[in-house]
Amino acid sequence: MNRRPSFPILVFCLAVAGMLLGCNLGSRAGELAQKVTPEQPQAVQVETQLPGPGPTSEPAAGPAERGPGAFDLPTPAEGLDQLPGYTARLATAFKGSLSGQPYETSSTLTRSVTAQPADFIAEIDYSASETKPFYILTGMIGDQQVYKPGKDASCQTTVDPALNDTGEIPEPASQLLPVLGAEQAGEEMVGQVDSLHYTFDERSLQLPEGTAAGEVWVAKDGGWVVKYTLQIQAPVGVLGVGMEGEQTWEYEAAPIESVALPDGCSPALDGYPQLADAQDLVRMNGAIRYASAAGLAEAIQFYKDEMAAAGWEEQEAFPPGDEQAVLLFAKAGDQDQQVAAVTLRAKAGGLSVDIQVITTPLAQAPALGELPPQLPGMPALPGIPTTTP
Q: Residue 170's closest CA among 76, 85, 241?
């Protein structure tokens, strides 16, 4: 349903998916999903290492075959791909010990996606005891790739075909544990979705040890998971290697019609003049870059004419040289002022073109005619002068 981000993001996302679920529980979830389908529910016995019976003892009991109810949820993500669009959020937390030492983790995985157009935004926020927190926001909206590598980092919006690849992002519902034998608890509205409510415990999860209390709400129309909550209290080895304590899952999903750019992310720059033979075009939030076979003098005149025709006023900047020119333009609106710097650099076979634009509230903007070649807040691209000679 979605286009995908670059490979480094893929590796990180898949690593966090393991953190969200826990290695041992993740393995058990896979076993249950493979062995049970909604049409053919059947008991699943998880093999455990239990003490063998003594000469006069009764055989040791393993985990219950299934819960007492009739409802099975072997694949919690099933049905979401039938929706025109949805947003889903999973929050998990662990509190207890790791190898005998106090240990805590918390994570959220949020994903919003539509089928037509195939847009998505995913956000991962993870922290654990004595480790550096991780945060990534990534996605594709239209032809724009969105990427924010940290909570305090700038959001990057880029249009560049070279960035598309074949990665994958964890689906929050895929990190939920399958359930066998949940009991119906009624019907409820969850948000705007009419849902069937079920409850379950450790028997439905095939836990070898420990206790669990969970609830799941499933859409009456479509059968997809609308809400899921779970708390597991378990001894060493159930939640993960060397882990002992409590882990919680809080999941909720809802239909949506479209995916918007997240707060703090601006769209890639568009609508600015480009030479007719523009090649290797890359658009970013605040900048455009491309190559052309045109000569420097031809490009200078092109941008003077086209920017003036679009209502921009040329500002005093650097005098053009033999191999480079920086043109500065400004346009004042009712609430803000835009400044565009067009940098032209001669190279073998033509030139490179960089257009950078910043928007400043009128109250903070310098007067037209008094603009420096490099304004505060304007990202510097390689080769652009930043001080007046």
A: 76
